[in-house]
Amino acid sequence: MKAVLFREHGGPEKLSYEEIPRPQIGPQEVLIRVKACALNHLDIWVRQGSPAYPIPLPHVLGSDVAGLVEEVGSQVERVKVWDRVFVSPGISCWNCEFCLAGRDNLCRTYSLLGAKLHGGYAEYVKVPFRNVLPIPENIPFEQAAAFPLVSVTASHMLFALAGLQPGETVLVMGAGSGVGVMAVQLAKLAGARVITTVGSDDKIPKAMILGADAVINHSQETVAERVKLLTEGRGVDVVVEHIGPEVWDTCLDSLTKGGRLITCGATTGGDVKLNLRSVFSRQLTIKGSYMGTRAELVKAAELIGQNRLIAVIDRTFPLQGAPAAQELMASRKFFGKIVLVC
Ligand SMILES: [Zn+2]
Q: For residue 195, which phi and psi values (nearest 5 degrees)?
């Protein structure tokens, strides 16, 4: 089969399009003929060589997969050949105390498709059958690949961790990012007032269409100041953040007393400064978020199937275009998801 893989860590030029053997499935695994695979920032971290993702090389990236079932193992239940499916990217044991409590993203052996395991930058990928879910009717493969990781992440941040309530105000950093697109829509669906940020004016109408009540161009305005103006000096109840040091102070300054900051990424670095006096005197909550639960993914898929949640796709590339697709992702000049199709 054809696949895009890398043999050493580094830039996008390390990705090469090659012929490799098709994966052999085990009794509880399913082989999927990949039709679409969405990119995530995780792909870039793994390619560059993050200490959080020690992997044997060569490696095939890709966490968000949709396609057709090609083969099923002897102990597979529910899933049949030719089913149209998408993949839940979080691989959990279904056995530990966290999995049994429905908190599978805390699983003791949690890993991600495309991180520890070979992912979907390929014609075929194998996954545990429990990670395979049916694509909602009328949803094309590209859209089915574009929502799982980011929708489950945004949902977990807003509801499980921030406990967002109707009528509250939320600041979503980066409306055009994968998580941003989902967080704006999910917060709006939940009855919150949504303020979001973009880096260029052309993204403002796109963010409004998703349901944002106010959009701040961070290249022209000071976000925390504008947030104060928009909230009559109060600040927001919840901040959804995935950018890191570049926006950290802005996020904290934008919170009201008792506000909650949820962070799920660090695209501009891992180290930030924190003034503890400000945290306790303003009674702030800061929580780290990683992926989400299987139940949250099933809910997101329902919303996608009802067209109440939209997986926005900026561009698609053929599989061999993966290096260019990753360069586009690193450039920030996109709105929504970038998807490989094959
Ligand atoms: Zn587990």
A: -110, 140
Closest CA relative to residue 254, chosen from 275, 280, 236: 236
Q: Give the total residue count for the chain.
A: 342
In the reported structure, the alpha carbon of residue 94 is separated from the centroid of ligand 1 by a whole-number distance in angstroms of: 5
CA 241 to ligand 1 centroid distance, Å: 27
Ligand 1 centroid from CA 295, angstroms: 14
User: Does the pLDDT at position 265 exceed 90?
Assistant: no
Tokens coding 158: 């807003």
Peptide bond before 245: cis, by omega within 30 degrees of 0? no
End-to-end CA distance of the chain: 12
Tokens of 15: 């990705």
Q: Give mean pLDDT, residues 77-105.
A: 97
Q: How far is the CA of 294 from the centre of ligand 1 (A)?
A: 12
CA of 321 to the centre of ligand 1 (A): 35
Amino acid identity, position 94: W
Q: What is the pLDDT of residues 289-324, one digit of tens each?
A: 999 999 999 999 999 999 999 999 999 999 999 999
How much is the mean pLDDT over the chain?
97
User: Which residue type does 311 have?
Assistant: A
Distance 98 CA to ligand 1 centre (A): 6
Distance 102 CA to ligand 1 centre (A): 9
For the cut 90, the answer to whether the pLDDT of residue 51 exceeds it is no
What angle separates helix 294-305 from helix 148-155, to the nearest 10 degrees? Answer: 110
| C-alpha span between 169 and 10 (Å, rounded) | 40
Cβ-contact 112, 42 below 8 angstroms = yes
Our CA angle for 221, 226, 231, nearest 5°, is 170
Complete DSSP assignment for 185-231: HHHHHTT-EEEEEESSGGGHHHHHHHT-SEEEETTTS-HHHHHHHHT
Q: What span, in angstroms and rounded, lies between the C-alpha atoms of 206 and 224?
A: 22
Contacts of residue 225, Cβ cutoff 8 Å, sequence gap at least 6: none
Between CA 37 and CA 257 the distance in angstroms is: 41
Residue 282 CA, ligand 1 centroid: distance in Å: 36
